[in-house]
Specification:
Layout: H1 3-6, E1 7-10, H2 14-19, E2 24-29, H3 35-46, E3 50-58, E4 62-65, E5 68-71, E6 75-82
Antiparallel strand pairs: 1-2, 2-6, 3-6, 4-5
Length: 97
């Protein structure tokens, strides 16, 4: 598993967008990744300095469509806090408006 395989995608919610003002970024990560591995991956991919990493295992939720029931898959979420002197992560490109 390379460092580029650890970070799957950014999690874009209203709360995570407001946390970006405090240099906190939320990502869906590989479920086998630990905090040190997530820190190394973010520093390598985005060329920033990471102050801390908090991880959360999101449990699978049950969903129902009519009479059929199933579950959404669970995933691991990482909230990465950058240092004060670090640059910001541009999740959206400059052409996104």
């Amino acid at each position: 598993m390379s460092l580029y395989d650890i970070i799957r995608k950014p999690i874009i919610t209203e709360a995570s967008m407001q946390a970006m003002d405090q240099k906190k970024y939320t990502f869906e990560v590989d479920s086998r990744a630990h905090k040190l591995l997530i820190k190394q991956a973010v520093e390598a991919v985005f060329d920033v300095k990471v102050a801390s990493v908090n991880t959360i295992s999101v449990k699978p939720k049950s969903k129902r469509v009519g009479k059929y029931t199933g579950t959404k898959s669970g995933y691991k979420k990482a909230i990465v806090t950058l240092t004060e002197d670090s640059k910001t992560i541009e999740i959206f490109g400059e052409d996104a408006e």
